[in-house]
Task: structure prediction
Amino acid sequence: MIQKWSFSPYIDTEAVVLRIPAEDSPLPFFEHTDGKYICHMKDTTRVYGLGEAIRGINKRGWQYISFCSDDPVHTEEKTSLYGAHNFILVDSGRDDRFLAFFDYPAKITFDIGYSESDLITVNPEEDRLDLYIVTGGSLREIVREFRSLIGRAYLPPFFAFGYGQSRWGYVSEDDIKTVFLRHKEAGIPIDMVYLDIDYMEDFQDFTVSRERFPDLKNLSGYMRSNGVHLVPIIDAAVKVREGYSVYDEGKEKGYFCKDADGEDFLTAVWPGLSVLPDFLNADARRWFGEQYKTLTDMGIDGFWNDMNEPALFYSDKRLKEAFLKLKEFEGKNLGIFDFFSLRDVLGKLSNSIDDYRAFYHNTPSGKLRHDRVHNLYGYQMTRSASDALKSIRGGKRTLLFSRASYIGAHRYGGIWTGDNHAWWSHILQSMKQMPSLNMCGFLYSGSDIGGFGGNCTRDLLIRWLSFAVFTPLMRNHSAVGTRHQEAFAFGETEIFRHIITLRYRLIPYLYSEFMKAALTDDMYFRPLSFDYEDDPIAGEVEDQLMVGESLMIAPVYTQNAGGRVVYLPEEMTQVRMSGGEISTEELNKGHHYISVPLGDVVFFIKKGYAIPLCDPAENTQSIDYATLRLIGSSDRYTLYQDDGESLDVTLDSVKTIKKSNELSF
Ligand code: GLC
Result:
């Protein structure tokens, strides 16, 4: 059951697709006092949700702030990342559980047993929101019902399930070709090479550097003829430069966010002085979306949208103030406090709340100050691209994912989890983010494999890839200035070839399960507790996940470990890929130490199920479904398959594969 309580929101966020009348009855589960929502927890209560937020699958014991933030250091003490996914699923047992979605686009704090261990306190900056409560059924059913409220998940094209290589710092056509050729030489499958900001002319959206990428159309044609898609980045802000058509047009039409005096709000990101398209204004949104055509005309069919929290390096006004302030320190003997203040003058310039309070949107609900709708900005940028691309590309699916997001954005694109690090703890962090993101519809997601910041090592990349074999978005990405971490960057390439090849052998299963989950509002990644509700051990496992209906993974995420303890909530078939060879073994319910030498990938199939594997392929285009063979303890698998590009698809295209095709070893 879904119920709604409405407390005078400023704006319809368009997070939900079902129109539900608001209740007059008192709010259940929460005490609603002083603009706060307070709920008591039992000792055994688990709290799921909050999408991308850091920390555990069980969110209990920390406080989280939904305020889309460009923060490249994802340590445990952080409270906000790029997404704002304001829902919690409070589980105190089969008959006492509910999901609450606080549809509120400004800053909102979820204190989940942080200040007081048995209390949840949800505190929006202003008490003006819609609150939805979903009850009834299993954890999975509650999530499904919630998902029916927020609408069907974005469907990526089939090729988006291939492997992608990205790096900030591929500065020329040659760099891009080299990435492809090195994979090809090493026999490592690849489907996508990403273009970071280096492809643009002066970091201007929808331009291409003539000097470094003299013929992008030709380059994309060459790559496509080799089965590889180029995927350029698009940033939210637009460079201020007269003569640059996107700037000129947007300015003339009044499509940029305005300051209090009605002038374009001047901020800065990569290109220096910039303006922010007003994605909350339908006309501006449409206009920005149309710009993607410049690149689709060059053969591009995938994009990643970035810096759309929006990230602000500084605003023009505050930078000027900062320079004046700096002068005050000149010639002074700076003691501790003065010195710290001096440091703060520049250190606190970026992403400042004062700047977020200094510009306005022209929305269907009138003029609204940015901080009141902050969390919608990235969402509406994704929507801008998605709506336009649907018509530009004649109803074909486009690969599209974003950094910032709000619930609702999941209907238009996927997300990646932003600037993580080459840290072992970030493999585990990513594993915990995936099921929570799935709960609110972000099925097409993944993290920068190998870590974005910091220097990756060969073993870290191997272990990370071994997990990412199962994430829908499988992209290796890193920051300029870090050690190269491509699958060919560590000398020997054999192990990388085996792991990435395994991904391609699994794609028919991964795609089939992804599409089934998307089309039935289900989860592709689930915590074990969602499948084994009555198993107290499964309820506490946070480093294993269910993938699709019948597969379980238990990745190694510790350096120098030769294996790990895995909990099997029931009898399962262990599948091991070692040196490209696949073998199976039946294992009993319970704890097992599983040896996983570097380069082996081990996963498990539930008893009574089978999954299909195809022959190795060099890209998604060459995957041959005729080679599918079943593996596991059943004689059939229900396969979903389609043309991989139509938007208008249903579950009708499922078919059962029978054992006659069984894999033989
Ligand atoms: C941001 C993105 C990162 C990208 C960089 C340069 O930090 O999160 O993925 O590489 O900008 O565009």
In short: The chain has a mean pLDDT of 97. The chain is about 25% helix and 25% strand. The radius of gyration is 25 Å.
